[in-house]
Each structure stands twice: as structure tokens, then as C-alpha cells.
Queue: 4 jobs
Job 1
Amino acid sequence: MIVGYHLTIGAYGFWLPNDPRGSWSSFVGAYELYLAAGRAIKTDERRSLARNVHDRDLRRAGKQNLQREPLKFNGIQARAIARGFERYFARTRREVWACAIMPDHVHLVVGRSRISIEQLSIQLKAAGTRQMTLEGCHPCGSAPDARGRFPKCFVRGEWSVFLEEDAVDRTIQYVKNNPIRQGYKRQKWSFVRPRSL
């Protein structure tokens, strides 16, 4: 029985649809990106592909052909995203068992609820973006469009894995250790609560 989800949300430029390791996309929307790195490489794999051996030069070529630089959240932006998440989770009362806000992606382990994991992803991206905008630290804050809106800082879609009981604790540990593996300190967010059985 599914008891929760591992949700990964990427910042703009984090994981391209034509990443040589595969992606969860079936279409490359930008012609320049298609020319530089080829067609989308769709996979249904649910385990992490991050450590798979791949053509790093091809991946870099793709990233050099994005419309703008890939985003990297700094510490101030990560805290703003967390405050946006905190407000969202306080309002919805959804269970959150782990969260890691990395420079170019976010990991969460959440319990099941009435809304789909895809809808949760959309709402969390909106909450994080809204909070960065309110705090004046949106990563594209100096380049609004003609209507005063900033470019999106999160990618379209998400990566999610259904978690059965036997995978929850292992996934929580994976998310908690993610910052440490990348040379950052362990993160502690007020909206994350221990899982109650």
C-alpha cells in the first residue's frame, strides 16, 4: 500500500529533457536545445539516475543552449523557499517527513493526501516562488517581463516515486543525507515532523 511519496522538484536548468542519463520528458521544447543535445530521452525508471555514467560534454552542451543560465538558489533564497513551504504546509496540514532544499533542486518526502503529487508539486513551486518574490530575492528578480512577471525558477513537472511502507525510512534518510553528501550542513525545517505510525 502506498503511504507517501518522494518528490523531487528541479530548478530551471537542473535536469534537461535530453539529459544523456534519461529524463521523464518526451519532448524538447527549445529548438536550440534540441540541436545541441538531441531528442528527449524518456525513461520510466523510478530510481535516481544521477550517478549513472553518461556523456558529460553532451549534458554541458545542452545547458549552454538554454534561454538563460541554469538557476542556483543561494542560502537566502533557500530559506525563502522553506518559508513558502512552511506557510503552505501549515495551511494544508499535509505530513512532511523530510525536506532538503539544494542549490538546484528540492527533495521532499510527504504522506498521501487528497490531492495528487503532481498538484502538490505545482502548489509548492508557487509557494516557494511567491515567498522569494515577497522577500525580494527571486533569482530572476532583476529581469521581469513587460507585464512585471519574472521567469519561472522551477522546471515544469517533477520526479515522484510512490513509497510503500518498507521504503519510507530509507527514503527519509536519503533526503536528510542529501545536503551532507554534497558538502552542506544537515537541514532542519520547522514544517518537517517525525512520521507517526
Job 2
Amino acid sequence: MTLSDQNVTDLTTFAGTWILDPARTSVEFHTKAMWVVKVKGTVKAIEGRADVGSDGALSGTLVLDATSFDTHNKKRDAHLRTEDFFEVVKYPTIVFTATGARPVLPGQVELTGSLTIHGQSRPLTVLASVDVTGGHGTVDAEVDIDRSDWGLSWSKLGAGLANHLVIKAHFVKE
């Protein structure tokens, strides 16, 4: 069932603990270099969970492996791991911590929380669709971030600071 199937006005229908299935989860990012060259890649989700209370309150996490950035360009990927960008030796993960959620449109929920990158946390609100079938749930979301908000401002002439993230997170009810 999706949120719209039930015309859900709260999340009590989904009460319980949901554990991320990293093998069925994907995170893509898109940006531009030299103003026009599209760069896209992936980063691996390594763990996560969502706890939905009997009152509909939600909390959760999605943890990404910052060492796994893959743009299909080994030189660029190695540079992303350095101090110029993610400094993965010191900050090996990127974490979204959800602190709340509320249905906002048919089939969609607004997730509120914070995103921690490079040791810095900033508030982030994400609009997502939720599809639950039995004990399996998928959360699809897209969000735009400016990496300079997290101190990642290194830029070769024309390199974009804006990034578009596409997340498809699959959860299994515990």
C-alpha cells in the first residue's frame, strides 16, 4: 500500500521497526563540471533503520559509505576522497538522521532531520514517496543540496557546488 492507497493522514499504519536492506538500496548523485558537463555517480548505503511509533512519530537513519563514491573515473573518485572534498579517512560516513515525518500530499511524506557530511550537520527536509507491501517498504526521494553548506567548497573553475541526489531506500520490517 502507498500512502495514497489508504489516504493516510498519519503514519500509525506503518508502526514498527524497519531495517534498511543495503543490497536493494541505491543512491545516485548528479552535478555539473565546467558548467555543462554532466557528472553522475553512486554512493553505497551501508546501514539504516526507521522506527515508527504507535502514535505515528518517526525517527531513523540512513548511513552512506563516503569511501564508495563512484563516478566511473578513478582519478576523480580518488580526488573526492581527499581533504578537498569528503576527507574519508577522517569522515568515512555521511548520515541522514530523520527526526520526524508527516504526510503532505497523496502518496508523499515530508521527512525532516539533519544531514551530516564532513563532520558538519545541517537541517534537511526531504519530500519522499513511500510504498509498503507486506513487510517491505521503499522510500523514493530526490533532493538538491549545495555542498558548500557543509564546508565542501573546493571548486575548479566551473565546477558545480549544487548536487542532485536520487535515493531509493528499501526497508524490511523487523
Job 3
Amino acid sequence: MDRIRILATGGTFDKEYNEITGELFFKSTHTGDMLALGRCLLPVEFETLMMIDSLQMTAADRESILARCRAVAERRIVITHGTDTMPETSVVLGKGLKGSGKTVVLTGAMVPYKFGSSDGMFNLGTALAFVQTLPPGVYVAMNGRWFPWHSVRKNKKKGIFEPTTQPAGKS
């Protein structure tokens, strides 16, 4: 079984809550705790690239993520990422990793893991399953669904990810 690389970049997935100020902040990734709680038996290696809200993510940050994806030996990569600009990062990766033979799945959470009612555990689990089964390419995985990098958006009114194109005959 091939090892999977998990790259943490921050986002709601890893936010903490300050009970005194009421603010959300970053301390460290919760990925290890989530893997242990989920009793993950997959061979994984995880690392923190950055701990930022995706709304603050710059083009240079996205290039840093791309460079790390290119540099790691693993052919299967899961990236935890903020949901607000996940589609933008997936475009950079989709174009930059074309023909690399790597399968990259971005995932995140709408509710912080520390809140206890987070969708992060489920999203991480499905991302780990998708990265093992999808062909090489870049994908976004949220709420049990996967989307190719070039046809996904976050519907902020509904709080879900959806395809940007409808199949023929569907409305």
C-alpha cells in the first residue's frame, strides 16, 4: 500500500476558539488527532505547510503548495484547506500538476474540528478514500462528493460545494 502525504494549510478545519475573546485562531493542525480518533490504518505522512485562513491565502502561498506537491515522493496527496478559496487553489494545482501522475484531493470543513460537530472528520475520511481510488488529477472532496479541479465552486448561500457545469439534459 502506497503512503499518502497529507499537507495541512489551515482553514476552518484547524481553527481553535478563544472563549475569552470569542475569536477563532490557529494553534496547530488537528490532522493527527483526527487520524487517531478515526482509527486510520493507512500509511500516512503529514506535515504543516501553513496555518492560515484561505481568504488570506496569496498566489505565493498557492505556488508554495504546488511546489511541495511536486517535491514529495508520494503520488497520493490530501490537502486540508480553507473552503472559501479551495477552488482557486485547485485550479493552480490542476494546471501545475498536469501529467505528473499524482492524485491530489483538497478537503476542508465548514465547522472547526474543535467544535465537536465538525464535518472535518467525515471530509478527511472521504478524501483519504478518494485519493486512493480516483485516477491521477486534482480534485475537491466535500460532504461525500468529489469534483474535478476545473468544475467546482462553493455555493456560499447553500453552504455546499457543487459542480460548475451541469450534465447535458439537466437543469
Job 4
Amino acid sequence: MIEEMLARTWDNLVGRIGGAMSFRLILQPAVALFFGIRDGLKDARLGRPAYFWTIFSDRTQRSELLHEGWKAVMKVFIMAVVIDAVYQYLQLAWFYPGEALIVAFILAFIPYLLIRGPINRIARRTMTHRERV
């Protein structure tokens, strides 16, 4: 029973890569990347450490940073859930909320987490280099 559910979930997730509405697989991560770049540049201007690393290494800032990150990608995340619900209705004739949350997390939150810290570090190095010149 559980094996069948996991197999169906995997097949449904892989099936989202092509076909109808596949443009969302580019658009949603692009929007999340935009917010990650914006927030990474803001972090650099404020002299903050790298976002993702700080979440794991500094317990005092973890809650605040997670709240800030969620606030930044919340709209993208919600849109990813809604668009995936439409996709599921059109392609699968059913709605699987767990799958929609997985897809939304992959398309919205992961790109944000992966880009914010590196942009911060690159921007801080660039700003430091400009200050030396």
C-alpha cells in the first residue's frame, strides 16, 4: 500500500517535467531566484553573514532568518501550490496535496536558499574590492 503510494507519487512528480504547463518549471524558480538575489544583495549591504550557513550555525538568528526567508518566498510558494493544483486537475483529474507541497518546495524555497548566500558573498567581495580601489 505505502509502496504503491510512493511509486505513484514518484511517477506523478517525474511526469510534471514535460508536457502541459512545463513553463512553470522555469518561471517559478526564476522568481524565487530573483527574491534570493534581492535579499542576498540586501544582506551584503547590511554586512550580514551568508543566509543558509547562518541558519544552521547560529541558533540565535535561525528563527528570524527562517521567518524572513519564508516571508520572501511565500507568494511564490503559494503560487507554485496553486499552479500545481491546476496541473494535477488537468493532467491527473485529482488533487494530491502532498505532491503539490513537494513541488512548491522544490520550485520556490530550494532555489531561494541556494542563491541568497552566494550572492551575499559575491556582493561583499565586490564591495570590498571597490573600497580598496
